Amino acid sequence: MGTAITFKRPDGKDASGYLANAARGNAPGVVVIQEWWGLSDQIKGLCDRFALAGFDALAPDLYKGKVVPYHDTDSANNEMNSLDFMDATTQTVRGAAQYLSRNGAKVGLTGFCLGGAVTIIGATKIPELAAGVVFYGIPPEQAAKPADIKIPLQAHFANKDDWCTPQLVDAFEKSMKAAGKSLELFRYDAEHAFVNEQRQAVHDREAAELAWGRATEFFRKHLG
């Protein structure tokens, strides 16, 4: 449904990504950030789904063409750990937001796992954003302080998550409240990455559909 595109980062360098356009011409935009596997077919499918829901969706390719197979967690971990999160967020992700906002559209940011952490960093660093939806990812507080978050956030976390643990989620929620920030937070009795329908071991269809409905409704409210 979508297409591979090239867009400019604020520093003038080229970045690439996958763009799916809504049927209407003046649609709001959503930047979609990959899991630690890379810009997989599953993430492209989510862009297609956002387009059907009425949003122009762009997933920037943070790994520059590399996609890690689902079984190879060591490689995925290596790719994630070698990613410059600040450069990825303030340049590649911001460039994607600028691309979607070029006709005056409001733009939101969402991401999964690694992309959830990038979404929170983006909420502090990317002025073009109007809202963010986080899926099971939290960056270290030195990367993004809750007090610096500038947009309304919605967040989805799994109670059986051993990476983004319930304790981490509790601490994040507490910090957001203490900073007086707008946060809608939902917890699901599911595993990490429960939205990813290509990973049958963790996918929870009921939780995924509930989260999807909440996310699209939140974006409609804040992006139009």
Automatic annotation (TrEMBL):
Domain of life: Bacteria
Sequence ranges assigned to domain Dienelactone hydrolase in this UniProt record: 17-222
Gene3D superfamilies per UniProt: alpha/beta hydrolase
Keywords attached to this entry: Hydrolase
Keyword Lyase attributed: no
Keyword Hydrolase: yes
InterPro entries: AB_hydrolase_fold (IPR029058), Dienelactn_hydro (IPR002925), Dienelactone_hydrolase-like (IPR051049)
Gene Ontology molecular function: hydrolase activity
Name of the featured protein: Dienelactone hydrolase family protein
